[in-house]
């Protein structure tokens, strides 16, 4: 058989029925080309296209001549999803046909068509073929989608209005209700269908009769539409007021057929209507019971409508004497001129507040009163409520207040702060108090008539100019820190406040100054302790890291080397255990002196804690061999110096040391790597018997490969749900009640089990994965707060703390991420505490403060974690919207043994209490540590003394026990 010159069948059939088949083929040809359905014929043997009909060409845009002979699978890109085609063919081969297979097909110009595909076998000229027909349902699908959207919009509108709809079949008495209508009648919020009497069973018995009468009236045709309010009892047996509307629909003969309508909850409206009635009753009660005189005036005529009992009691007028008259007609006002001003304001419909007027008592004497008005409506009549308050006693009190101005002078003189009054125009002193004399040394007679500039009180000219500029701009100065100089040249640090003051007609300035010199010395000491070891006054780890950074930066620019020597005193613990910690401290001080005496001035000696010292050799020869020789020689020299006998508290002691060495920049380009590698070398010395020296070698870097492995697995851990949150309780130090917890991330590896945070958190930080992990931790913590609140497991004062990394905090969207987590969990933000480190603070103080203030406005609290171990300036600390200082466990660990740690804790607690901050101690493991902290008034603590960090289930059990 041939279609338009193209032979569809490749073989001739010589069977006796050939003529009959030829006729059938011709009929098929006519049908194939005329079919309105897109159709394709494919050779079942090789899958090549035999023919396509015009409907196919119109639908998909393929010309017949470019389609014939193509492989329908590989060369004919009709199917958007090849897997769908394979699935269809698989079903077709199994069952011999495929009916109504929905798929997306691609037109020649790339447009997509949604079609229903049917495939069946046919035999033409003895050749087995596949006939594929595609019905275009694209518009139908679009119409269905639009219909669905329309229905959704209708449902949304109904939901927004909280209105339900219903449809009653009057023949069967079957009621169809929307989900909202069902919900309003006490059913679950799903569409409902059932008998009318079952649906109305919860209606208040008193309202059922009215509903039946309304039903009869609308069916009789007395009303086409009807509206009815009734009460329905909820599952909690509480009455709910509903408003129903109904519209009757009849058939062609006028017989009632259906009734449709709406349902709406009007409980609040009925409650408000009742409240309005109650309010008017209350107004009448309050009006008559008010202790102040009140009269009610009509708004238009200003005639007195009513007076209360206090009006009669205090002013002497009976109701029948004044009702129906204006106040002027009743003779209430003594001062007619001021009364006319009051009348003008009332006629202009101005509200009056605190208008003083002399009122005549019914017996004739005058009373000074304060008139106030309020507009209101009584029974829809505009009225004025006039208050006539006797202020005679207040006026007397004001006179007494003026007489008491001498008390200000007494307070001025007795204040412990320095207070001075100066002329605003000239700046000359008018008066100073004794506090000024104590602070500056100047007597009053030496100061009065002179300016601060003439006396040279402000020692910093720039600060003085800035204070004057602030005063001119803002009109006052509040607690500005300035440097001052006393009469005898003593330097002072003061906080200055300047406030404008009027003395009669003279404009003055009140200047208050408070001496903060001692406070600043304390702050400087704390700052020094933040960077230096309290026992030896050597640089601590923080300062050493800073100097290492500087050295590394320098050696990158110039051809020099350096060395980092990590010292450990062998068996130093024996000295502490046998001779006591005072002797051990003396040994550490002696070691310090010997190290300082041996190294060069440009070298750094630091103490990291315990018996760990570090020596940083700077500016060494770049020649590798000579440099190593010099380093080894210096290390041996230091080892011999420390090995010399020493007399400590009557004991002859000899020390040996182990030294691990890392070379700069060969063994690392950052302080952490250098310290780590020097420490690795130190442990190599300890492993080989102590009292020796070892250089770091690349073979020691086993931990590096472990880190790479951890980083690779960490990238999958978050997606695979391997992270968990554990919770370490925080307890009130006084009551030992759980008042909060710290949320800590843990990694449960599928093969290696629980992995130490110390092993993977630094990797998260360095790789940048801390951003995703940190966001996950905040979201999980907020969800945990929600669960705890919903289950009543915690009180309203419970706070959950989350550690925030510097990289996470510096994200531009950080505040938005926190707010999203809070909103997603629908928690009060006050339950969330964000713990930040001092390093976060100093990176960009203005950005830090801005973000903290935004989150503080939401209710989020902030804590400084590991306080005292970072770089922050205490001057920054007072600018931050902080709630809590957390005392680092490194100080708590030895606070009962190491006086340096104890002193640091005392300073931190004193600072926190002075700034009214909450104090939380970390790492409390011994009762002695807790006792020490409680003596210093530390508010709260956490640590192994009470509980380690717990998995969620264990933490919840602990909370349950606590309840």
Task: List the keywords.
eight-stranded mixed barrel, 39 strands, Beta-Lactamase, alpha+beta, six-stranded antiparallel beta sheet, disordered N terminus, 36 helices, 43% helix, single chain, 963 residues
Q: Topology, pairings included?
A:
Layout lengths: L1 E2 L2 E2 L10 H17 L3 E6 L5 E4 L1 H7 L3 H4 L14 H14 L1 E10 L5 E13 L2 E10 L1 H24 L1 E7 L4 E4 L1 H6 L7 E4 H4 L5 H15 L5 E9 L5 E12 L5 E10 L1 H23 L4 E5 L5 E4 L1 H7 L3 H4 L13 H12 L7 E6 L5 E13 L2 E10 L1 H12 L1 H10 L3 E6 L5 E4 L1 H7 L3 H4 L4 H4 L5 H14 L2 E9 L5 E13 L2 E10 L1 H15 L9 H17 L3 E9 L2 H8 L1 H18 L5 E6 L2 E9 L3 H20 L2 E3 L2 E3 L3 E8 L6 H17 L5 E3 L6 H16 L5 E10 L5 E12 L3 E3 L1 H11 L2 H21 L8 E5 L2 H4 L4 H12 L6 E6 H6 L1 H14 L2 E7 L6 H4 L6 E4 L1 H4 L6 H16 L3 E4 L5 H9 L4 E2 L10 H11 L1
Parallel strand pairs: 29-30, 32-34, 34-35, 35-36, 36-37, 37-38, 38-39
Antiparallel strand pairs: 1-2, 3-4, 3-7, 5-6, 6-7, 8-9, 8-13, 9-10, 11-12, 12-13, 14-15, 14-18, 16-17, 17-18, 19-20, 19-23, 21-22, 22-23, 24-26, 24-29, 25-26, 27-28, 31-32, 31-39, 32-33
Helix pairs in contact: 19-34, 21-22, 22-23, 25-26, 27-29, 29-31
How would you briefly describe this protein structure?
The protein is an alpha+beta fold and 963 residues long. 43% of the residues lie in helices and 28% in strands.
The level of helicity is 40-55%
- Determine and state the CATH class of the largest domain: Alpha Beta
Q: What profile does the largest beta sheet have? A: 8 strands, mixed, barrel
- Percent of residues in beta strands? 25-35%
Radius of gyration: 45 Å
Overall mean confidence score, pLDDT: 87
CATH superfamily of the largest domain: EAL domain
Shape: flat
CATH fold name of the largest domain = TIM Barrel
